[in-house]
Write a structure and sequence with these properties.
The chain contains 5 helices and 8 strands; from the N terminus they run H-H-E-E-E-E-H-E-H-E-E-E-H. By secondary structure, it is of the alpha+beta class. The protein has one domain. A hairpin with a 3-residue loop joins strand 6 and strand 7. The chain is globular.
Length: 194
């Protein structure tokens, strides 16, 4: 009886850890269909279809880490290949965008560890040594912050950048297994453009 209980326990733990390893973004897994994602997220999505790429995009308005976000799911041939959190807070003070980025960055580091790559890209070196102008540099597109993590199946990119005082903050999740198919579809579309 003890052996049976032990075997059931091991099977249960194995099943739970397999399920946990299979989810890549929220409660979804790469390769899921639009209907499977809708079953998890709900039907109240905005569906967009890009016929040229055989691509479908589902979007949802949600809250993540006490911040409003647009959750975006990208499908190629009805398989989930990429997803994104696009933070939708609008601040009157540019410093708050940087504070939001640092908050999310801390959460991602706790979950995924040290980023495999972290870049602060300055387009205008004259602002580089001025910490007081860092937030203005982001808002005007002179500074872009990007941190990247990799798991067994996913590339995760956390970015903050701006252009003409429109600041974009997001976290992109990309399936590593579907990366070649996505690249092939984009290349084919670009060739059709000419």
């Amino acid at each position: 009886m003890k052996i049976l209980s032990l075997a059931i326990g091991i099977l249960l733990i194995s099943t739970i850890s397999t399920y946990a390893a299979e989810t890549n973004f929220r409660q979804t897994s790469w390769g899921m269909s639009t209907e499977e994602v809708k079953a998890i997220e709900g039907e109240n999505s905005q569906d967009l279809v890009d016929e040229t790429l055989v691509q479908t995009v589902l979007t949802y308005e949600r809250w993540v880490a006490s911040s409003p976000v647009r959750v975006v799911y990208v499908f190629l041939d009805d398989k989930l290949v990429n997803s994104l959190y696009l933070f939708t807070d609008r601040h009157s003070e540019n410093a708050l965008y940087l504070k939001d980025y640092e908050k999310i960055h801390t959460i991602l580091k706790k979950k995924y560890g040290t980023p495999s790559d972290e870049q602060e890209t300055w387009l205008n070196d004259s602002l580089k040594g001025r910490p007081d102008l860092r937030r203005t540099a982001i808002a005007t597109g002179q500074l872009k912050l990007v941190a990247t993590w990799h798991t067994k199946s996913t590339s995760i990119e956390h970015a903050l950048h701006g252009d003409k005082y429109e600041i974009t903050h997001g976290v992109t999740y990309k399936s590593l297994a579907h990366k070649p198919a996505v690249k092939e579809a984009l290349d084919a579309q670009h060739q059709k453009d000419f």
